[in-house]
Amino acid sequence: MSNGATHLVETGSVQSGLDRLAAGEGPDLSRCHVALLCHPASVDKRIRHVTDIFHDLGVTVVSLLGPEHGIEAAAQDMAEVPGDPLLSPSQDAAYGPRTPQYSLYGKNAASLRPTVDMFGDANWLVCDLQDVGSRYYTYVWTAVMAAEVALADGRNVLILDRPNPIGGGDHSIEGATIETGFESFVGFHPVAVRHGMTLGELTCMALAERGTSTRDRLKVLTCSGWRRDMLFPATGLRWVMPSPNMPTFDTAMVYPGQCLFEGTQLSEGRGTTRPFEIVGAPWVDGRALADAVTREERPGIVLRPLRFTPTFHKHVGITCGGVQLHVVDANATRSLGTAVALLRELWRQGAARRGANAFRWRTEPYEFVSDIPAVDLLAGGSWLREGIESGVPAPDLLASQADARDAFIARRRPFLVYD
Are 57 and 132 in contact (CB under 8 A)? Predict the structure, then answer.
């Protein structure tokens, strides 16, 4: 490996890095002081939280750091989590009432990066976060930023790796990377929309390409038994919601495409029991929408027309027409192409209505950026928005990104540590 990280690799049945640490593998942290970056999905096979495991191992946790949504993932999307040190939650009795918690998602972009003071006297930063395999999902960028600060301050960093739930083979990669000037918290480093890497692999890649010196102080305790073609149900691990609107594996499968609807005034299903699996608006004809998207544009997915009423977020309390995406073949699913086809048809439906186009791009600030449309930040450039508005067919829009996708596949290869 050329990225400067030490990878502690084991073979066998699927175990997360946390499972292996609990079994006595990896660095001995029993006499160490640790700053712990975690969330609710930081659990082992028995659904024991990392804080409980660290207590049993005799690890001294001096501070708890929380990514977007907070340590307990109780906050909704883009909701500020207070940045002042908080008392540890009551269920974290192992550390007593005075273990400080810090938010890495506050009022502004500066809040996304920890300060050295947040680490206290820790000699290790330990990151245990479940990613979902899409560039927009911000946890990996929180891990990268936290690791950069810790390494620059002379601390050791340990990443407890977890499987990429939606797979990692070259064939699964979707979308292009990010054009210069379109970087944001949903695209902190130029990787494909569906990147096919684990959090450990992607963190190492980003740190190396950003020129961060690791000096053998970055370690990744890999998963054992995970293969790149393995989807989450095959791992035998239990799904724990890593964020409030990621309730199921199916949600993760459609998220690389459906998150694009955050860049519009259409509901992406927040406020329903199936966020990201549902999309629509009061003016949408769900049956016409489902009929317009061809089988080739929705591989592995069935589109079912429906009506729904969001209980919060966009169009709260208003009945909407739309579709639900049912994943019927997860191995075949490529949700980015499906979402682009849906966007193009919804733009057409909106333009066909009397008066102004009923379709709207989001214009409010998004992830602390106010001068670039949200959909451009998500797409990594203006190509998608401009192509939709110009009536470019969905397959042609995706084809325009093929070279950038192939370049990413080549770039990532030196950082892949699973077969």
Answer: no
